[in-house]
């Protein structure tokens, strides 16, 4: 016997998205994961390309560095800035990370050849650098010669 249908029709899901509902909000409302909502809409060819947060992550990031904590936090910040509602645990993580950056007075930098920090093996490519006056309020610094996304 097939599992009962939890999500509404693709048309109804598309209407919710058109009306500003995020994947997270739909998932919470129907008691499913965000991935379930996204995959359902993707299979129906009803998704649009996700913005890459080019202003927060301007670098061409290697695939093996995609899940580095600074990259994840910058993507969360991008989602928040575009109006997405973050899950409370993700919101707390982002708030703590931003507070840590401020307290340490550092910015996020990226160099694809940067080896991982031994304390954080998934950090390869990303590193923190002391804030300089020319950084202003920015969370990131793009060093000369960095390969940027086009």
Structural summary, described in words:
The chain has helices at 10-18, 23-30, 34-43, 69-81, 88-104; strands at residues 106-110, 126-130. The chain has two domains: 10-43, no CATH class; 63-135, no CATH class. The protein is elongated. The chain is built from five helices and two strands; from the N terminus they run H-H-H-H-H-E-E. The protein is mainly α. It has a two-stranded antiparallel ribbon with strand order 1-2.
Write out key terms for the chains shown.
single chain
List the helices and strands and how they pair.
Layout lengths: L9 H9 L4 H8 L3 H10 L25 H13 L6 H17 L1 E5 L15 E5 L20
Antiparallel strand pairs: 1-2
Helix pairs in contact: 2-3
Number of structural units classed as domains = 2
First-residue to last-residue Cα separation: 49 Å
> How big is the Rg?
18 Å
Number of strands: 2
Proportion of residues in β-strands: 5-15%
Mean pLDDT: 87
Helix content class = 25-40%
Q: Identify low-pLDDT runs.
A: none
User: What is the number of helices?
Assistant: 5
Category from helices, strands and their pairing: mainly alpha
| Largest sheet: spatial strand order | 1-2
Largest sheet report: 2 strands, antiparallel
Secondary-structure element pattern, one letter each: HHHHHEE
Shape: elongated
